[in-house]
Amino acid sequence: MNIKYKCPDNKLVSPEDCIKDCRMSHRCCPSAMPAHVNKHTRSWKGKLSVTQALNPTTQIYLSINNDRIINLQRNIYSMLGTINHSRHEAGGAHTDELECEIFLEDELNAGTTDQLQCVDGKYYLRDIKNKKVMQAKWILDYEKIGDKDYALPTWRQTGKKLKDRDDVVMQMNRYRMLLEKSRGITIEGMFMDVVFIDYSPTNSPSRFGLKYQYYGVPVRKLDDDFVLDFYKKADARIKHALKNGVDKFCYEDDDWKEFGAPGNRCNFYCESKDSCIEYFKKIGKDHKYA
Ligand code: SF4
User: Fold this and answer.
1) Which residue minimizes the CA distance to atom 8 of ligand 1?
2) What residues have CB less than 8 Å from 76, skipping those under 6 apart?
3) CB atoms within 10 A of CB 194
4) The domain 79-230: what is its CATH number?
5) How far is Cα 47 from Cα 135, in angstroms, rounded to an integer?
6) Residue 162: which residues within 8 A CB-CB, separation 6 or more?
7) How far is the CA of 69 from the centre of ligand 1 (A)?
8) Band (172; pLDDT cuts 50, 70, 90)
9) Nearest atom of ligand 1 to the alpha carbon of 62
């Protein structure tokens, strides 16, 4: 699998060529830095990463079997998250209570978890998520965490299904299991550390009722068998796809309509969209969002 960058005129260019000299009249980024940062390939090593398994099979299949096409302009935004993680990692190295970026693996999955925190001999798993203030409302409403509960928020399951939130719960529980097994420890609690990347001290409190720029949202513990079953099924699906190919668009199963945003996954959250259009064209199917 190779990395290709998509120029503003939709032409593809290799990272090396992009770094050496921009083929357009001027760079789409302020410098060649984003081209350097994104040039590393992720090769398929025969097992799904904890995060990768959360995606639909077609999306995973195409990301494994095709070149990865990156729009550097769009990717700059996601670098904010990477920078935030790096800062936490660098800071965590100076404390006794945090261990950051821990690589975990078993026979089924591999992945790197953000932070393991140890306070008074008890272990907590923490995952940093960058969210926009607009997204905060549903996260905090969902968990019923108001400012009054901020210091010691309690998990209250509402039964309301929110996909992104559910993905985080599944992902963190799988990391919990990998950590507990490899280290022989018990994780007492898991937290999604929501950091607002567009928080403003003057605007956000009045418009959204947010006092803080960060909220630690507790993540519920799931039954181990339930989590393992989810990951085993994802593993079986991708193995079947790698052997037989795929014949279904992701949106045929889930179009994100329930979030009021049909097509958003294809248009904004899929690195394989170009490959997808080409792949399905070959088997006689037109992409709804091409
Ligand atoms: S473009 Fe849409 S249908 Fe195609 S792989 Fe990506 S998410 Fe799936």
Assistant:
1) 250
2) 29, 34
3) 23
4) 3.40.1350
5) 32
6) 138, 142
7) 13
8) very high
9) 5
Q: What's the pTM value of the predicted model, to 2 decimals?
A: 0.84
Instruction: Classify residue 30 by burial, with Cβ atoms within 10 Å: 0-12, 13-18, 19+.
Output: exposed
Give the tens place of pLDDT for each residue, 47-60: 999 999 999 999 99
Atom of ligand 1 nearest to the CA of 63: 5
Q: Residue 189 Cα, ligand 1 centroid: separation in angstroms?
A: 34
Question: Strand 12-13's sheet: what is its strand order?
Answer: 12-13, 3-6, 68-70
Residue predicted with more confidence, 286 or 165? 286
Tally the C-alpha atoms within 13 A of residue 289's C-alpha that lie toward its C-beta. Answer: 19
Give residue 36 CA to ligand 1 midpoint distance, Å. Answer: 26
- In ligand 1, which atom is closest to the CA atom of 269? 7
Q: Which residues contact ligand 1 via a Cβ below 6 A?
A: 56, 58-59, 62, 249-251, 265-266, 270, 272-273, 276
The residue extents of the domains of the chain are 3-77+232-282, 79-230
Split at pLDDT 50, 70, 90, the class of 145 is very low
CA-nearest residue, atom 4 of ligand 1: 276
